[in-house]
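Progress report, Aim 2. The chain analyzed during this reporting quarter is listed below.
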Amino acid sequence: MCQAFDQNKSHWVNWGLAILLSLLFSTLSLSWWLFNTKVIDIALAKEIFWQYQLIIWCAAVIVGGALGMSGAVLQVVLRNPLADVSILGILSGSQFVGLLLLFILPSYISRLSYYSYALFLTACVIGAMLVLLLFMLVIFTQKSLTNITVIIFLGVGISAVFSALTALIMSFSRAETLQQITLWQFGGFLNVSWLQLTLLILVSCVFFAFAIKNHQAFDMLSLGETEAMLMGVDVKRLLVWLVITLAFLVACIVSIAGPIAFLGLAAPHIARFLLSTNKMKVLLIASFLCGASLMLISQWLSQSIAYPMIIPVGIITALLGAPFLVFLVIRELKTNGV
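Predicted structure tokens for the chain:
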């Protein structure tokens, strides 16, 4: 009993540290920005903070946390430590269909009205759902995606196809449309509105509620589809709802921040390292906190490294996440004796 109490205590300490880290970087970033901007007018500083900085940091927390949750669920469902919305090509699919709409209707989408954003979000949902359905089809035909080589090559192939199609669209785009596409591809929160952020929060809450409600089913599914069905899990129904909720979540992220890579891969692994558990209920919350912390760090670096210039946060996450991916691949190959 004492050991169990110490383990629970350790869990709460780690969660508290993750929250503290998030708040710490938020405070440091805000203080650093106010100091370096040398704003004398306090009223102006407050106005800039409430209208510009606050929404950026809120969006960073929600987007990072959502990516962390999505990575945790995918890694459990696919039973593969490299599963992530960016590596699987889900981000690329959502990005391509969104860019296709931007290419077809550039003037309408650039208005940023409620209707134009709803149309843009719908396009991103369709793109994400197409890739997710492809992976679920492979799961049903091949029984699983536990082979590290299969998931890497399948994800790389999907991403390559959509990247080529995206390049094709860019080659035929006008100068002003090309500029919009390029800035959006880098990833960032400069054009986030409170409406978009509110929608992302709602979709993230729905995804979180779905994952928490079915956390036992996901734990059983991590043992295999056959074992989960023998224990009474309706696997097909579970995966269908996962595809729907995850597609909307990824689409909201892409439509707000662009394609943010690798963060959903790293956050669940850091959470497992801190908590030493694979239980979905615990892992989901910890992955959200770790993802939010990583995104806050990346956003802070994007505003600090080349001040007063702002480096797109998607570049920072890619630079930090790519070496982490290489490390995971090498570790898995050593574990499998390759």
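The two ends are 41 Å apart (CA to CA). Residues 1-6 have pLDDT under 50 and may be disordered. These observations will guide the mutagenesis work planned for the next reporting period.
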